[in-house]
Amino acid sequence: MGIINLDHISGNPLLPEVQAAMIEAVRTNYGNPSSPHHLGDQAAEALEQARQSVARLINSASPKEIVFTSGGTESINHAIKGVAAAKREQGRHIIASNIEHNSVLKTLRRLMGFGYTVTSVPVDGDGRVNPDDIAKAITDKTILISIMHSNNEIGTIQPIEEIARIAREKKVIFHTDAVTSIGVVPIDVRKLGVDLLSFAANQFHGPAGVGGLYIRKGTSIWPLLDGGAQENNRRAGTENLISIIGMGVAAQLAAKEMGARLNHVKKLRDRLLKGLNEKIDDIYINGHPEHCLPNIVSVSISYIEGESIVLMLEEEGIAVSTRSACASGSLRASHVLSSIGRDWASAQGTLVISFGKDNTEGEIDRFLDVLVTVVQTLRNMSPLYVRAKG
Amino acid sequence: MGIINLDHISGNPLLPEVQAAMIEAVRTNYGNPSSPHHLGDQAAEALEQARQSVARLINSASPKEIVFTSGGTESINHAIKGVAAAKREQGRHIIASNIEHNSVLKTLRRLMGFGYTVTSVPVDGDGRVNPDDIAKAITDKTILISIMHSNNEIGTIQPIEEIARIAREKKVIFHTDAVTSIGVVPIDVRKLGVDLLSFAANQFHGPAGVGGLYIRKGTSIWPLLDGGAQENNRRAGTENLISIIGMGVAAQLAAKEMGARLNHVKKLRDRLLKGLNEKIDDIYINGHPEHCLPNIVSVSISYIEGESIVLMLEEEGIAVSTRSACASGSLRASHVLSSIGRDWASAQGTLVISFGKDNTEGEIDRFLDVLVTVVQTLRNMSPLYVRAKG
Q1: Domain Aminotransferase class V, which positions (chains A, B) (predicted)?
Q2: B304 and B234: one domain?
């Protein structure tokens, strides 16, 4: 029996078409896109084709606005450190929400060691930022606002268009980390009105370790990687062409299948939520009920620990997560859950269930059945539960 | 007829074994190495296996000293910016040679905008640094010395062990850019005595866009990419596992075949040098005759332009380079050639011929035959040549 993968947020499996394109690219044995001869020309062409596919997926005005990177983390570091460096004479104040991904938070913490100050804007109980809070936080020293498009633990989608409008009025650069959104929900950089947008291919069934940064024409930003003239002088380093080709195909498919994928995962999500609410008591669904990703459910299950649930589910061949894989080395409670008001105890019992186009309703049902048993078993061993219910 | 690739320095073709391993990895559809369940375990295991292969290739004391990156450029940026940040309170003086790769030079230029000063040490006519010059340049504010192991345009190998000894005595961190050396000549980080060493997989027949940074245990350095806990908290971002697996196999093969590869390319180099000297007059072989890479020949051909030679060779199905692919967007004369005393005119007529294990003696002979004709044709059109010889 295969594994039921309900941990897509840590990385989606490659689609067959992406696999085929990457295998073809490995076999083709491309040259260096920067070489001034035929071996390089072929490679440069493949590179630009992928760039066009990605540009179309996010409706960028030009493929030139797409810079390929080694993934979401590099894109985010590039966006934040690149603007911080370019604008440092103008001001050193940055605004972010307090539920950003660690790539944003740790980058900001790093900059604080270099004289930058950060205003961390709170979120409400559903994980939404209030755009007014951002407007109020802007000073004449503010150079950057960084608010994620959607949250990787609870799925809440932020009012990005409104925030972008405020940023534009105040002439502050606006970056959004769209890593968990791209390929899952429609993203239109022009409609959103953002200056910078980070993304990673593995969130839309492309390979891990490759991604990109959308840089709206005219945005003031420095490279993170200095060196050669690649990527229009915005990101040095020989390109990871095989992975970029895979990302290009994944982007094409994501654009083409967006509607069908949305319908599919929404159906799974509804089924999952219905099952959770009917079959398990004392639970709490985290995140905004409407402004949310359709492919993720965060549920806090009282009285027991998420880690134990994950281990017991794994024995049954089901993969879920307690939180983002990037933070799995850390034992601290999730900063996202504490920001939306979950106390430490209920945060401990939180599962993140994330799915993709390859999951089936049968898998959701099987997960629910196993989960009910696992929860009951763990609760029967929990002194807290026995005391509360006894 | 296939293309004769004598431009290996821009990127070696993937070896069949590397292709097979990458294709297998694409098919396996690994999970995220950081996921706390079975899908992640498999991936984590593959990741650590590759790390061991790379560690063995450079004789690192422990695989923990290897941090995977998106290639040589990221490794170099990480090394220099990471030490600059970690040591900034102690001093802001850095020493490098004036023939470093653009990834080093442009990174240093960037740091100069943040209050760092750089001493650029000259090289002799063969492109070698004098270790005494480095010793003299060290002040109590010096935090880093960065000297490349071998040069990517002329192949000269630097006296790294001697420089490392000086750096260690003065307690200055020493980084070497070994991108063009690794897999080509034996590299032993412990014998060299370096603290940091940058490398890229495509120089030893692995994929482009992946590489690593050797960080000797105890070296004071900050991450370049902040975020998740990957790579022992030293490089955030979901790993590019497919390429890393390819690099691991390429490293294994490079270690195993080192002797045979050296013999093969040395034979090709000798044949090439003999042919050039016998068949074309008014040429100059750049770089040190002994302390040099065995897989690269830089030749300055008087009175004509390298770009024209490259174009005419390309029509005959032969790929060579005038300089590093990373700089091919730039029209300026090579900083390496001017540093070793080539004047602008002869620098213009410079070809970089670089080869690998897949090249044959027949290809060298064919190249020489075509080159003789091309040079004669171009010289006959050159007013400079006609005047000099008329």
Answers
A1: 6-367
A2: no
List the structure tokens of B106: 């442009």
Q: Is B360 helix (H, G, I), strand (E, B) or coil?
A: coil
What ipTM score was computed for the predicted complex, to two decimals? 0.92
Angle between helices A38-57 and A241-279 (to 10 degrees): 30
Nearest CB partner across the interface for B325, out of A19, A32, A74? A32
CB contact under 8 A, A209 and B106: no
Do B142 and B227 reside in the same domain of the chain?
A: yes
Burial B124-156 (b: 16+ CB within 10 A, else e): eebbbbbbeebbebbeeebbbbbbbbbbbbbbb
CA A282 to chain centre: 29
Inform me whether the C-beta atom of residue A208 falls under 8 Å from chain B C-beta atoms.
yes
Residues B133-142: tens digit of each pLDDT: 999 999 999 9
The tokens of B242 are what? 């497919």
Q: Looking at beta carbons, which residues of chain B come within 8 Å of A28?
A: none
Q: Output the domain CATH number for residue A358.
A: 3.90.1150.10
d(C-alpha A117, C-alpha A109), whole Å: 9
pLDDT digit string (tens) for B184-194?
999 999 999 99
Structure confidence at residue B220 (pLDDT): 97
Mean pLDDT of chain A: 93
What digits encode the pLDDT tens for the residues A238-253? 999 999 999 999 999 9
Are B126 and B157 found together in one domain? yes
Q: Tell me: pLDDT of B38 over 80.
A: no
Q: Is B71 on the interface with A (CB under 8 A)?
A: yes
Domain holding B56: CATH number? 3.40.640.10
Give me the residue from B23, B26, B32 closest to A10, CB to CB. Answer: B32
A227 vs B23: CB contact, 8 Å cut-off? no
Which B positions 26-65 lie with beta carbon below 8 A of chain A? 26-27, 29, 31-32, 34-40
CB contacts, 8 Å: B40 with chain A: 10, 325
Domain that holds residue A202: 16-253
pLDDT surpassing 60 at residue A331 = no
B-proximal residues of A, 130-189, CB under 8 Å: none
